[in-house]
Amino acid sequence: MELRQLRYFVAVAEELHFGRAAERMMIVQSAVSQQVSRLERELGVALFDRTPRRVRLTEAGAAFLPAAREVLAAERRALAAVDRFVAARGTVLRIGTSRGMGERLEKVLEALARQEPGTRVELVSAMPAERLRRVAAGEWDAAFVRGVLEAPEGVRQVPVWQDELVVALPAGHPAARADTLELSALADLPLCLTGRRNNPPLVDLVERACADAGFTPVPGPAHSSLQDTLAALAAGAHGWTVVYAAAARQLRTGRIAFRPVGAAGLSLPTVMAVPASGTERLRPLLDACAEVARNDLDP
């Protein structure tokens, strides 16, 4: 029995859906299904009753769930004990990151290393709401979060910069010929975007911008990952998506066109979620973010 099997089991038990559990764990659904099936074989019982329409816990699964959670809680306590030991010897910052930060994240880490050479940084990833939860629980020191999300009690959100979004579409599409484009030119193209439950601020921003442009976007195929979406667009698939400009600058390909949107553009605020008190040790990190934001404004 492996800890990752328990993590996948708990995720499916809480979501009651293998696909949503995979999105939450940021892995492919087949990996979740495979590891849960392996765990069931090792235990000799079925943990889930699976039908084409639903997934639910069996009696054995319901009995196993509290114990699995306790094992994972013990793992977190053990990791926290090691973190406390390491922290006594030097500063370690556990920082939650967002996808598509591109060179901005590199610049923040470079600025932090200049200011605090003895600081060691551990970068960790999760869905936005999970990032906020982990900061609130004291598991992480801070986390980058885009958009306006309700923060748990004990978490303060410090604005750091605006993240511009650009449209990604096949380079051969007529709309890609312009240096900038109006969203109305994409009205007939399917929009390939993550589900709202994964990223409410992003989805709301794009749908609101489309509404302001006078159309409702055509739903694209089921979203798997940005990497897969970009690969499909590069191969000439009919559709479009949005990408953070900082990430687009690192995605060099002649098959996809990245274009800013009109005069108003598209952007989301990025904040640093930190504990509401006792944040003095995070001052160098916040200063590094401020330095990067200032450099963004330089001509």
UniProtKB/TrEMBL annotation:
MF terms in GO: DNA binding; DNA-binding transcription factor activity
Keywords: DNA-binding, Transcription, Transcription regulation
Residue stretches making up the HTH lysR-type domain: 1-58
CDD domains noted in UniProt: PBP2_LTTR_aromatics_like
Presence of the UniProt keyword Coiled coil in the record: no
Gene Ontology, cellular component aspect: protein-DNA complex
Pfam family membership, one: HTH_1
Presence of keyword Transcription: yes
Gene3D superfamilies on file: Periplasmic binding protein-like II, Winged helix-like DNA-binding domain superfamily/Winged helix DNA-binding domain
Similarity comment: family membership: Belongs to the LysR transcriptional regulatory family.
Name of the protein this chain belongs to: LysR family transcriptional regulator
Species: Streptomyces mexicanus
Taxon lineage: Bacteria, Bacillati, Actinomycetota, Actinomycetes, Kitasatosporales
